[in-house]
Amino acid sequence: MTRFGDFEFDARSGELRSNGTATRLEPQPARVLALLVERAGDVVTRAELQQRVWSGDTFVDFDRGLNYCIAQIREALGDSASEPKFVETLPRRGYRFIATVHNGDPVQAVAPANAVPVARSINVSAPVAIAAVAVVVALIAGASMLMLRRDAVKAKPDTRVRVAVVPFDNETGVADYDRLAQSLTDATVARLAADPTRLAVVGNALALRVPRSQRDLQAIGNSLGVGHVVLGQVQQIDGHLRITTHLIRTGDQSHLWAQRFEPSPSETGHLDREVSEAVAGAVAKRLLGG
Fold first, then answer.
1. How far apart are CA 29 and CA 72, in angstroms?
2. Which of 5, 101, 226, 241 would you label with 39, given CA atoms 20 to 30 Å apart?
């Protein structure tokens, strides 16, 4: 655990704590903050951030992804680019963490000045000494086994397919359809999340709420660590309602599946179930092998 200002930061979990409130950063911003804190006081160049955090993923729009990460970090810390307290921008060079950092090292107990010194040698009988050694050996062995089990659990890879659900866009211009778009989004997230052993579903991240005109699927994939996104539109064509849903691979933004729904007015009550089931079927077939 690392402390700076009013914050505690756990680089392993990406969690920031302040005044009893915990905020979990997305994986990419958390790794950027961890590197900046590790190098506190030094300039961390954009090239170094790209090498250490993005791991050579050449298809990623790095500049946009890094800018997004820095924005997320500043938002979580309540920081400002113009008057920074934590992350300073050095134009065309990189970034520098300027707050004082305290690492969570254990504090050693200090004996009081009037403490009575303890004798350095104590005569102990051989059987007692042997028993004591046996206890110590057993404790060390037990601790080693616990550490090995813990490391084994940590090392177990997460093999689930990661999918993000972008909020459905209401493109009708009619505010009354906002609720339908939100209902379709919520139903799709809930239906995909019903398979937690095979799917890891992201449905409420800030990166997903970017307006469609500014939406960058590669940046979303990079910042959230997802390989695919589900998105959809609520449209009105010649007075008729139309829902279009898509399953898209973030790396090259290619469509793996798309489907249109044109319900009659009497069918809209079950539309969220119909759409979410169709998306779940497509994800199972295209990403999970059936």
1. 7
2. 226
